[in-house]
């Protein structure tokens, strides 16, 4: 009798679930159950948080998600086309366009926006000096009063916390100083970036000015917040005139010419994987992050919380703070399952 009741219960529950409307039934599903997934991860640590959150989402959907393979950009794009990896959450476009294989569009796809125009580069200046000297662009550093205010070593030039030798941004900064005739006005400091930025932040906290190059996502814009502590300034026109960004928080103007093309941070996935896994596709499409949240997590990593265990804890805390949004993404993904 007890066995009969158990069998009857299972059949009844199964029938009840099957009769549920599509969305209601989807909530009970683990659409990724039995599917093994191999993600990749970029080699720069500022992208680790994106990867860990996306992996957590797929895991919650029932996918058997392996630890990510850390790959250089060109190797990833070849691997995702071949199907050796299924996706990553570290696409930067248009920056990565030139690294895509010829058959990329046939075998892979860019999906959703983790951070629209989230990959930025540019120059930031302390807000109090911007207001005092009415600084709008790099051109203002040709003025004697501005150079004097930012000259910490007495060489008659404004000191800019720049990039170490060999970094791509070192050449970009040198290019800006050259074409805009600023080589006699701005001194790019090329020491180790983290140490140089720590010194610049310390100087700012002590009441001094700050003038530095940075990119986003990055811990620097969490420590010195655009709009509160610092402001993005313009690079003069000329060959950089197509680098304008609109609606940027903490900019001296709208639009602002940063001197670097803004990039969208996006997920890239194998097309067959997307076709076979509509729940994963939908999660990729709806998942997004505020740049401020990425910057905050990056700052914690910079302060020593950089182990994989730390990153997973950051993921737990972010989901707890954004539970309703997270639940909505998971539900949308489940509802997309066939």
Characterize the structure shown.
By secondary structure, the protein is of the alpha/beta class. It has two domains: 18-118 and 263-335, Periplasmic binding protein-like II (D-Maltodextrin-Binding Protein, domain 2), CATH 3.40.190.10; 121-257, Glycine betaine-binding periplasmic protein, domain 2 (D-Maltodextrin-Binding Protein, domain 2, 3-Layer(aba) Sandwich). 43% of the residues lie in helices and 18% in strands. The protein is built from 15 helices and 14 strands. The strands form six sheets. A three-stranded antiparallel beta sheet has the order 5-14-6. Strands 10-7-11 form a three-stranded antiparallel beta sheet. Helix 8 (168-179) links the parallel strand 8 and strand 9 (186-189). The chain is elongated, with a radius of gyration of 24 Å. Residues 1-27 have low confidence and may be disordered.
Level-2 CATH architecture of the largest domain: 3-Layer(aba) Sandwich
CATH class of the largest domain: Alpha Beta
Record the strand order, biggest sheet: 5-14-6
Q: CATH topology of the largest domain, anyone?
A: D-Maltodextrin-Binding Protein, domain 2
Mean pLDDT: 91
The end-to-end distance, rounded to whole angstroms, is: 37 Å
| Integer count of domains | 2
Q: CATH superfamily of the largest domain, please?
A: Periplasmic binding protein-like II
Q: What is the oligomeric state here?
A: single chain
Query: What low-confidence regions span 5 or more consecutive residues with pLDDT below 50?
Result: 1-27
Biggest β-sheet strands, sense, barrel: 3 strands, antiparallel
Radius of gyration: 24 Å
Q: Roughly what percent helix?
A: 40-55%
Share of residues in strands = 15-25%
